[in-house]
Amino acid sequence: QSALTQPPSASGSPGQSVTISCTGTSSDVGGYNYVSWYQQHPGKAPKLMIYEVSKRPSGVPDRFSGSKSGNTASLTVSGLQAEDEGDYYCTSYAGSNSVLFGGGTKLTVL
Amino acid sequence: EVQLLESGGGLVQPGGSLRLSCVASGFTFSSYAMSWVRQTPGKGLEWVSGISSSGGSTYYADSVKGRFTISRDNSKNMLYLQLNSLRAEDTAVYSCVKDVRSSTSRGTFDIWGQGTMVTVSS
């Protein structure tokens, strides 16, 4: 089982939109609607931002949205704000009671 | 306040063992599946092991299968991870995480502990 593939970095200016991809295979991302996204600030624990591809937990701004097409899931952050800067990780259920993480994407707000 | 607090990390020689503990508070511990996730600067996050709410089902990443054992004591709100035959590549911060489901984890972790550092080195 290999980690899911994410771009190492992404960036955007305040107010813009940015999309982070998470690519797997038909055995994980493509095979199940169990993709989650986490935001992590330096020195802090990850925070759940999106689950089951596109659902937002209570308290997460609607500027964060998720989608999936084939073996690639995406996280879109609209109306970028300074506090959105941080590391973002995707996860996917990979069958056989296992979970895979992506390698992480560092989002910079310019 | 919903909280997970890990302990038990430290420096251990290759081939050695450690037992990590995690105490949960602020939620009905016995109703949720739990997992351990580790994080290294170079390799990011990695799911290590999961356990169902009852403790009757356990799951492991291939990288730790046969070496690590997850368990829980619902009467004490405690989660454990026994680490045996440790290797240098097991060096990481190990965090206890709460799943939103009661049975098998699907990778939806809504509560995270701050983690405990495990260093494997001679």
Task: Note down, in words, how this protein is organized.
The complex is a heterodimer of chains A (110) and B (122). Chain A has 110 residues and is mainly beta. In chain A, strands 1, 3, 4, 7, 8 and 9 form a six-stranded mixed β-sheet that branches. Chain A is globular. The N and C termini of chain A lie far apart (35 Å). Chain B has 122 residues and is mainly beta. Chain B is globular and about 40 Å long. In chain B, 0% of the residues lie in helices and 52% in strands. In chain B, a hairpin with a 3-residue loop joins strand 4 and strand 5. The model of chain B has no long low-confidence stretch (mean pLDDT 95). In chain B, strands 2, 4, 5, 6, 9, 10 and 11 form a seven-stranded mixed β-sheet that branches. A four-stranded antiparallel β-sheet of chain B has the order 1-3-8-7, with no helix packed on it. The chains are: A mainly beta (110), B mainly beta (122).
Rounded average pLDDT of chain A: 96
Give the beta-strand count of chain B. 11
Estimate the strand proportion of chain B.
over 45%
Structural category of chain A: mainly beta
Supply Rg of chain B. 13 Å
Radius of gyration of chain A: 13 Å
Spell the H/E element sequence of chain A.
EEEEEEEEE
Q: Please indicate the percent range of residues of chain A in DSSP E strands (runs of 2 or more).
A: 35-45%
What layout of secondary structure does this protein have?
The complex is a heterodimer of chains A (110) and B (122).
Chain A: E1 9-12, E2 18-23, E3 35-40, E4 47-50, E5 64-69, E6 72-77, E7 86-93, E8 99-101, E9 105-109
Parallel strand pairs in A: 1-9
Antiparallel strand pairs in A: 2-6, 3-4, 3-7, 5-6, 7-8, 7-9
Chain B: E1 3-7, E2 10-12, E3 18-25, E4 34-40, E5 44-51, E6 58-60, E7 68-73, E8 78-83, E9 92-99, E10 109-112, E11 116-120
Parallel strand pairs in B: 2-11
Antiparallel strand pairs in B: 1-3, 3-8, 4-5, 4-9, 5-6, 7-8, 9-10, 9-11
